[in-house]
Structure formats: structure tokens, C-alpha cells
């Protein structure tokens, strides 16, 4: 509805953002990019046929990679060549229609009826089989695969119209360009609109966007879903990508946070927290669904990041295993009993996948189940998880932990192996058997080969202990590139059956170490495993408290960051889908201008403050005639501690409000980087401040509040609406419908809302609207109405309007000349006639 909700009509996105976007694109050139002359070699990833002597092909060969994956058997030896051949080709582009956009059906029809046919003609000429097709496993033809790589889309003239379409709709938020396999994890999460969902490692946010779509899916205009998403990422800059990405969704049901996922605060309210509110709705953060899309080595993205061929080594996966376990364990501790968690990576490596899943099942005892989802999403081609694999360290293959020499026991962990058992565990387990044997053997502890009885029994025991996992890891899923011409992905679905046990692993391990080793392997080397032990040796509640304590003590991310930062992550290469608005850089440049903000204990982060200024709220209500049924109280927040200079007012859903109240009660444990939907913005110009209301309605917030507005709202005929979008500023006397022109002249000066009238709707019709209602914010000046919508949103609205008009064959429009607005896209800022004296 309206211009927003991912359906155009948004404001406030300025030229600055556009410039940053350009710079960002320049700094993140597609790694497949080659000289223009080289398009013919697109699919060999190798030569440019000698056309450019200075050109060096990407190495798409790495012997260590070959050896590693041949040994792991993730594909059969017969398939090896086709697996490798596909891995060496660029990844075809894929994208998803935003299902909650008001134009989702229009876009789907355009793809089915227009592009599928016109592009097919192109590729037939080019000797290809097909151009674009819906992904069969994604609901309602909402996700699409194209047989063109992103470079082909950019360079091929015949594809220009399609490329422009993708760019525009992506920017507006009607589609999201996303790798096909990356769309899979949210589908298995089974999210409902009332769910509280935690996306633990969320940036740049393609999956968060998908989750938001799902919770918003069946929401009525003017209402919000009961659920909400907390999207978290450790990396501040990537958080900004996430914020930009999700802004296109225009949602009041999202909180973006910046924490180490493995220490995500539980916000548990207890008697320690003074000022506890009696009517607190929730007493700790617990989620119905958790998405755990962890940092990984990313070799499933080789097709779009061929520079990874050069960098690949087995050590990267080994180095991440422990962090992945910690993050997954924290996710499970924050999951409600009965809730579902999806663990996923864009890596093919079993050490980052099956080994992690096995370890969390081991740690959780029977409280967590690996769900068999083989009967869900049947059309998705995938392979079962592995039950056995090997570990490689410094080019040496290790079949079990006993092969690990003592110098490497801090980097190669027992949990990386299928048995998941350590030397020490085995000794501990075997100890009891030995005691019994010794008793039955008459107590002789020495053997013929001179080994101590315990040492020998360990080796024998391990020999018996299979190299096959005891867990049903076949329920995991691995998507491999040559099955469906995609990237690779790993997904496991977990369900929490009961509270996590209080694991007594650490004391046991220490006992073992003291007994059998003169020097503990981790002594003087505080590695991740120590952190893991301290994190998981707790019940859910203890974990919450530990995390809280950690957060209080460590406002800055700890050393794990440096280990993770150099990694390539699934969506990182998808530069066209991302626009950074670098808040850190902004912070630096504005540091001299304003005082560093504090959000509770978080330094350098704008505070989140409930906005309760009755005078301002009442003036807004009165000016726009906002119906009393619209829930204002405690739903408005600002990011400024200075109540007198509030520039933007954000709206938060009830679910977000509850979390925010909890967060205040527990001393602001959450470091919030973005929250809520921008609803009102202060007028800054001379004339703006002289209007009866100093706040205008932002384009993002308009769809939500539209059904409740009773003043400063008019219905325009299609012809006048189109006129406004086309010319941006129209004098009252120039409207085709003179009555509309007169009504516009009678509005109070300042912000107003113009709704596209439909069918029998009269100009004074109050409307609750529906999802197809199109509305834009305008400025009523002295002699004209000016559109307050970005040029790109105007372009989108015009195109959609024209399509609808053609479909409806509106006779009143037949004589309107077609409109060329492409040249206006250069400037995405809306501009209000300077003569009107309002801001631009
Ligand atoms: C695979 S990417 C996530 C992709 C994302 N889910 C999406 O679909 O767009 C992994 C993310 O984890 C973040 N990360 C790395 N270490 C982390 C940690 N300890 N806690 C939280 N996030 C972390 C990285 O910054 C990166 O953005």
C-alpha cells in the first residue's frame, strides 16, 4: 500500500547515499571482471583468447582444494569432473521478488509474460537453452534464476532493458538480488508472522530481508505483524549494509544490533536489575526461531569469488570450527523450547558443517534434535550430510584425534572428527574399563609392549571407535553446484526439545588433563576452546548471565574479530545489492561537529529514546487528523538525547517496543544500531517551520499511517496523479481536475498526502486503503503542490501506474503522452520548488 513497503514512494534517500554507493561499487569490482573484448571467454574462467596480452587468467585450480574434497567424498569420483567444471564457471544471477511489495504480482507477471519471452529470443540467437526461469522450489514463482552472469547482464546490449529493470527494482526494494542457494535457509525456518526471530550473523541482510517478508506477508494495510526480527552482526560496516538493505523493506518490526553472536545478550530480567517494571511483558530475550548463518570459509561461493581459488586452504575451516560451535550453542540457548534453529554455511567443508552440528548435538544431549526435513521443499535438489570425514592439518591427514600430536591439540579439536571424542574422553571412559580389567587380570598394569595400560587401551579403543558419526547427520543438507547450476550451501535444521543441560564437560576435561598430561595442551594459549567451554558449560539461564557479564565487561568486540574479518562471506561478492552508508566514517567526519553519543553504556552509538513530547505528538495528530485508533503511545522513538532538537521520529511495533522496554530494564544490554520505521521528519526550511506542524510524514512511514489520516489528504485522478509524478511540481490551476486543484489550494500549508483515486472513489473519500493503494507525500506551497518522493521512486510509480492503466484500459488516459523520466533518475533527491521556500 502507499508508496512504500518496498513498493516505491520512499523519501529521504539522498544524493549522498548515491555517491557512497558509487564509490562502494568502484571499490568492490566484480572479481570476474575482464576487459571488454573478453566476453566470449566468459564461461571458461580462463583464457581471453590472446586478445589482451596483459591479461592474466584467474587460477581456477588449487591442488590442496582438489586433494581435500576428493578425500572427503562430498561428490563421487565419477562426478568429480563435472563438479569441478561447474565450479570454474561464473555464477548465474538470481533474484527474488519481495512478496510483501504492493507490486509483487505486477513484477511476477512482467517476468512471466514479458522478459521470459523477450529474453528467450535473445538466448536462442546466442545458442543457449533458456534465459530466465522461476526456481521450482521457491513458493509462488517469487525467486528466479537467470542464465546470465552479472557481467553478461552488465555488458550485453540486448540484455540492457532487463538489467535496468533488475537495478531499478532492486534499489526500490521490489526485488532482491541474491544467490539462489542463499535463499534456502529461511525457507526451512518455518517462520510465522507472530514469531520473534534472531538472525545471529545477519549482514549484509539478504536473509533478514527474506525473514521480514515472511513476517509481513499477510499483514493488513495499517497494521503490523505481532512478530519481529533481531538482526545482528559483529562487523559495524557490514551492519550498515544490513541497515541499508532492510530499509528497503520499510519495517517497524526490526532491531539491528552489533554484538558477537556467541555472546549475544539474553537481557534476562532479575532482581539484580533495579527499576524492574511490574508490567514487563517479557522477562528475557527468547526466540521462536534462530537463523545461524555463521561466518565460514565460503568455498561454496567460488563461482562468484574466483579469487578464493588462490587463497583456499584447509586451515581456514579448521580455524572457524570452534567459533561456529560457540555461535550455534548461543543460538540454541536463546531459542525457546519447541523452537527451530537453522544452522547454515556457504562452505562445503565438513569441519565447518557436519562436525559443528555433531558437536552441538553432543553438547546438548537429547535436548536438541536434528530434524529430518527430507519431506519438506521436495523440489530442492540436495544431498544428505556426511557421516564420516577426515581432518587435515598442515597437509597431514588425520583420521581421529589420537593422530594429532600434542603441539597441534590447541588448533585441531576433538569435535572436528566424526567420533567427536578426545584422547582424554577416551581415557576417561576407558579408565573404568581398565580398572575392571585390571581387577580381573589380577591388577597387572604393564603390558608386553611396554606401554602403560591406559595408553594402550586408548589406541585400541579408538581403533574400535568408528570414524563414523553416531548422529543422524544424513538429515543435514548439502547443495552442490553441478546439481542445479548454483553455488554450494550447507543447511541443518534443529529443534529444541527441552532446556539445554548443564554440561559438566570442563571439570571432566581438567580432571583428565591433570591426570594424564604433564602440560595441558591449552596452557598459556588461551584459545577459542576455552571460550567455548566457558560458554556452554551452563544452562540456558547461566549462559544468559555469562553473556550479560561479558557484555558489561567488554564493550568492544574481542579478539575473535581479527580472525573473522579477512574471510569471504556468502553475500559479500554481491556488490550490486549493497550500498554502504558508512556510519563509522560519518561518525568520524561529524565528530568535530557534535558530541559523541552514548547509548547506555555503548559509546559512539546514538541513544534510543522513547519520544513522549505530548505537544509535538498532539500537533502531528491534529494536523493530519490521525485517528485515535492508531497506537501512538510508547511506539515512537528517536535517536537523540536532546529532546528539543529531534529531527526524526521512528515508529516501532508492539513487539519491538516490548524488547526495547526490556532492554531499558536490564541496563541497555543491547547495542542497537538501527530500530523502527522513520515516520516523521522535522521541516527545516523557513516556510517549513512556519507551518502549523513542523513534522512531515516520511515516505517510509506513509503506508502504515495512511489508513488513519483524515486531514491533509486528497484523492487525485490517474491523470493528475501522473501529472504530479511526471512534473514533480504542479500549480493548482494546472490540474486537469479543477475541483482537485481547488481542494489542493485549500489545504493547510505544509505536508499533505495525495492518493491515487480508483474506480468510483470520489476526491473526498476517506479510505482505509488496501494493498494496492498508491499514495505519495507532497508539499502544499503557496501556488502549487510539490512531490516529496525520490526521482527513482517516481520513476517506478510511473511505470507501474502506466502498466496498470494499460491493463485497465482507462479511457481518460489515452491522450496522455508517454513519459520519459529516465534522465531524472540521476538525482534521487526529491526537490521542492525553491520559490515555494521549502526544503529540497
Ligand atoms: C555468512 S555471513 C552472513 C550472511 C547473511 N546471513 C546474509 O544472508 O546476508 C556471516 C556474517 O557473520 C559476521 N560475523 C563474523 N563473526 C561474527 C560473530 N562472532 N558474531 C556475529 N557475526 C559475526 C560477518 O560480519 C558476516 O557478516
UniProtKB/TrEMBL annotation:
Belongs to the class I-like SAM-binding methyltransferase superfamily. RsmB/NOP family. Residues 13-25 have a biased composition (Basic residues). The active site is at residue 346. GO terms for molecular function: tRNA (cytidine-5-)-methyltransferase activity; tRNA binding. S-adenosyl-L-methionine binds at residues 201-207, 233, 293. This is tRNA (Cytosine(34)-C(5))-methyltransferase. Residues 40-57 have a biased composition (Polar residues). Residues 1-12 have a biased composition (Gly residues).
Amino acid at each position: 500500500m502507499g508508496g512504500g513497503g518496498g513498493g516505491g514512494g520512499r523519501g529521504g534517500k539522498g544524493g549522498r547515499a548515491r555517491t557512497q554507493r558509487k564509490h562502494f561499487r568502484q571499490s568492490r569490482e566484480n572479481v570476474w571482471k575482464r576487459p571488454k573484448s573478453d566476453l566470449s571467454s566468459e564461461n571458461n574462467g580462463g583464457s581471453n583468447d590472446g586478445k589482451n596480452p596483459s591479461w592474466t587468467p584467474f587460477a581456477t585450480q588449487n591442488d590442496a582444494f582438489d586433494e581435500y574434497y576428493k578425500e572427503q567424498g562430498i561428490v563421487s569420483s565419477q562426478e568429480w569432473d563435472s563438479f569441478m567444471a561447474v565450479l570454474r564457471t561464473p555464477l548465474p544471477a538470481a533474484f527474488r521478488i519481495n512478496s510483501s511489495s504492493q507490486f509483487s504480482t505486477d513484477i511476477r507477471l512482467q517476468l512471466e509474460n514479458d522478459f521470459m519471452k523477450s529474453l528467450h529470443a535473445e538466448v536462442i540467437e546466442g545458442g543457449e537453452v533458456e534465459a530466465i526461469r522461476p526456481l521450482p522450489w521457491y513458493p509462488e514463482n517469487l525467486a528466479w534464476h537467470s542464465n546470465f552472469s552479472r557481467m553478461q547482464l552488465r555488458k550485453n546490449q540486448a540484455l540492457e532493458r532487463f538489467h535496468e529493470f533488475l537495478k531499478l527494482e532492486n534499489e526500490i526494494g521490489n526485488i532482491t538480488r541474491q544467490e539462489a542457494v542463499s535463499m534456502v535457509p529461511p525457507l526451512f525456518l518455518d517462520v510465522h508472522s507472530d514469531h520473534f526471530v534472531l538472525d545471529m550473523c545477519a549482514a549484509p541482510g539478504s536473509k533478514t530481508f527474506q525473514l521480514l517478508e515472511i513476517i509481513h506477508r499477510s499483514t493488513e494495510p495499517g497494521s503490523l505483524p505481532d512478530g519481529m526480527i533481531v538482526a545482528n552482526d559483529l562487523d559495524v560496516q557490514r551492519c550498515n549494509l544490513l541497515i541499508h538493505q532492510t530499509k528497503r523493506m520499510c519495517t517497524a518490526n526490526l532491531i539491528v544490533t552489533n554484538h558477537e553472536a556467541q555472546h549475544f545478550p539474553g537481557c534476562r530480567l532479575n532482581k539484580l536489575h533495579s527499576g524492574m517494571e511490574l508490567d514487563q511483558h517479557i522477562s528475557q530475550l527468547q526466540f521462536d526461531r534462530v537463523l545461524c548463518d555463521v561466518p565460514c570459509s565460503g568455498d561454496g561461493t567460488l563461482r562468484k569469488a574466483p579469487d578464493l581459488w588462490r587463497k583456499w586452504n584447509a586451515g581456514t575451516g579448521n580455524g572457524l570450527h570452534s567459533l561456529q560451535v560457540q555461535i550455534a550453542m548461543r543460538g540454541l540457548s536463546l531459542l525457546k523450547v519447541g523452537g527451530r534453529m537453522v544452522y547454515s554455511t556457504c562452505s562445503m567443508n565438513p569441519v565447518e558443517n557436519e562436525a559443528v552440528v555433531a558437536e552441538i548435538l553432543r553438547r546438548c544431549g537429547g535436548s536438541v534434535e536434528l530434524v529430518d526435513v527430507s519431506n519438506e521443499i521436495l523440489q530442492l535438489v540436495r544431498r544428505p550430510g556426511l557421516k564420516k570425514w577426515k581432518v587435515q592439518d598442515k597437509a597431514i591427514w588425520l583420521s581421529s584425534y589420537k593422530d594429532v600430536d600434542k603441539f597441534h591439540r590447541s588448533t585441531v579439536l576433538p569435535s572436528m572428527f566424526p567420533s567427536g571424542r578426545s584422547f582424554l574422553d577416551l581415557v576417561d571412559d576407558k579408565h573404568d574399563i581398565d580398572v575392571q580389567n585390571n581387577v580381573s587380570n589380577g591388577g597387572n598394569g604393564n603390558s608386553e609392549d611396554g606401554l602403560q595400560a591406559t595408553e594402550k587401551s586408548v589406541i585400541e579403543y579408538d581403533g574400535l571407535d568408528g570414524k563414523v558419526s553416531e548422529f543422524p547427520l544424513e538429515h543435514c543438507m548439502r547443495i552442490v553446484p553441478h546439481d542445479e547450476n548454483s553455488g554450494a550451501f550447507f543447511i541443518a535444521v534443529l529443534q529444541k526439545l527441552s532446556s539445554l543441560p548443564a554440561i559438566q564437560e570442563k571439570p571432566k576435561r581438567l580432571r583428565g588433563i591433570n591426570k594424564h598430561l604433564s602440560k595441558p595442551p591449552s596452557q598459556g594459549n588461551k584459545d577459542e576452546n576455552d571460550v567455548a567451554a566457558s560458554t556452554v558449560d551452563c544452562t540456558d539461564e547461566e549462559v544468559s548471565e555469562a553473556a550479560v557479564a561479558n557484555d558489561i565487561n567488554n564493550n568492544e568486540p574481542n579478539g575473535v574479530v581479527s580472525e573473522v574479518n579477512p574471510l569471504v562471506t556468502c553475500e559479500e561478492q554481491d556488490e550490486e545489492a549493497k550500498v554502504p552508508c558508512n556510519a563509522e566514517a560519518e561518525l568520524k567526519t561529524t565528530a568535530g561537529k557534535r558530541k559523541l553519543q552514548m547509548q547506555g553504556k555503548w559509546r559512539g552509538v546514538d541513544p534510543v529514546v522513547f519520544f513522549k513530547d505530548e505537544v509535538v505528538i498532539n500537533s502531528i495528530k491534529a494536523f493530519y487528523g490521525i485517528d485515535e485508533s492508531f497506537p501512538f503511545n510508547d511506539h515512537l522513538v528517536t535517536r537523540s538525547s536532546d529532546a528539543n532538537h529531534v529531527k526524526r521520529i521512528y515508529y516501532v511495533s508492539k513487539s519491538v517496543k516490548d524488547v526495547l522496554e526490556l532492554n531499558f530494564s536490564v541496563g541497555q544490554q543491547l547495542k542497537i544500531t538501527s530500530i523502527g520505521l522513520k515516520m516523521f521528519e522535522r521541516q527545516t526550511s523557513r516556510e517549513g517551520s512556519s507551518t502549523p506542524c513542523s513534522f512531515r510524514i516520511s515516505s517510509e512511514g506513509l503506508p502504515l499511517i495512511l489508513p488513519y489520516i483524515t486531514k491533509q489528504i486528497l484523492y487525485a485522478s490517474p491523470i493528475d496523479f501522473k501529472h504530479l509524478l511526471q512534473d514533480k511540481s504542479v500549480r493548482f490551476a494546472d490540474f486537469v481536475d479543477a475541483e482537485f486543484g481547488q481542494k489542493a489550494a485549500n489545504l493547510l500549508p505544509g505536508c499533505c498526502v495525495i492518493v491515487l483515486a480508483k474506480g468510483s472513489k470520489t476526491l473526498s473519500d476517506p479510505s482505509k486503503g488496501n494493498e494496492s493503494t498508491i499514495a505519495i507525500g507532497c508539499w502544499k506551497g503557496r501556488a502549487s503542490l510539490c512531490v516529496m518522493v525520490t526521482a527513482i521512486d517516481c520513476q517506478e510509480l510511473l511505470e507501474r501506474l502506466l502498466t496498470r492503466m494499460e491493463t485497465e484500459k482507462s479511457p481518460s488516459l489515452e491522450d496522455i503522452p508517454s513519459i520519459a523520466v529516465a534522465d531524472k533518475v540521476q538525482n534521487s533527491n526529491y526537490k521542492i520548488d525553491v520559490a515555494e521556500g521549502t526544503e529540497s
